[in-house]
Amino acid sequence: MKNTLLALLFTGFAFNASAQTAETTTTATTAGTVEKSLFNVQVGAIGAWASHEARLGNKWALRSEIGLDLWAYDTYFDGSGTVMVPSISVEPRWYYNIEKRANKGKYTANNSASFVTIAVEYYPDLFILGSAPSYIYVPNQMTIIPKWGIRRAIAKSNFNYELGFGLGYGFYFSDSDDVIKNAGDVAVDVHARIGYTF
Questions:
Q1: Residue 34 in contact with residue 95, Cβ under 8 Å?
Q2: Which helix H or strand E contains 58, and what residues bound it?
Q3: Same structural domain for residues 75 and 1?
Q4: Lower Cβ count inside 10 Å, N or C end of the chain?
Q5: Which letter does DSSP use for residue 109 in this model?
Q6: CA 184/CA 163 separation, integer angstroms
Q7: Is the same domain home to 130 and 162?
Q8: CA–CA separation, 55 vs 75, rounded Å?
Q9: Alpha-carbon distance values, 13 to 4, 5, 24, 99 (Å)
Q10: CA 152 to CA 108: how far, in whole Å?
């Protein structure tokens, strides 16, 4: 009986050692690549967003996002104010230094790296949150903005911050969803956000 217990005990240690070796190997082979799938919520001075990132390659991820952005308006009779409007965006992100950061021993979990992207964002004329005169609306519009940014974990946790900026072009649509001629403008995107990754 004693020999049987000792044999089972040593077998358990052998399985435990094998599992730890396999886990270490798996972690080592995935270091320096983007996560397979991330869900994230973020808040900033001008809104709140929920996003998902899906891995396309070792350094590439496709980010899809919905959110509420803060917009300001100014009228002659009713003064000025702010409202929240919905936004939908899609952007392929290239985390160009994630492998280099991993090789230097820096934390890269939850895609903590610098990135370059081309963000396509759509602002539908669905609703406005806030007290605004009835004639205030946000026309259907889309922006295409090349951006550079960084994403870093806070204290190696699931909390993170993200900073980015870019300059691109915005298109305005008519009620029939045709692009209005000569109704485009330069679009600027500067963001600073704090979030949590699930």
A1: yes
A2: none
A3: no
A4: N
A5: G
A6: 26
A7: yes
A8: 45
A9: 14, 12, 16, 34
A10: 8
Number of domains observed in the structure of the chain: 2
Q: Residue 178 in 3-state DSSP?
A: coil
Strands 141-153 and 159-173, bridge-based pairing: antiparallel
Distances from the Cα of 193 to the Cα of 49, 83, 149, 160, angstroms: 9, 19, 11, 8
Cα–Cα dist 163/136, whole Å? 30
In this structure, are residues 105 and 55 in contact, taking their beta carbons and an 8 Å threshold? no
Domain around 14: 1-30
- pLDDT tens digits, one per residue of 21-79: 333 333 444 678 999 999 999 999 999 999 999 999 999 999 999 999 999 888 888 88
Q: What's the CA gap between 34 and 57, in Å, rounded?
A: 8
Structure tokens at 123: 């602002």
Residue 26: what residue type?
Answer: T
- Say how far apart CA 156 and CA 158 lie, in whole Å: 7
User: Would you say the pTM of this structure is higher than 0.90?
Assistant: no
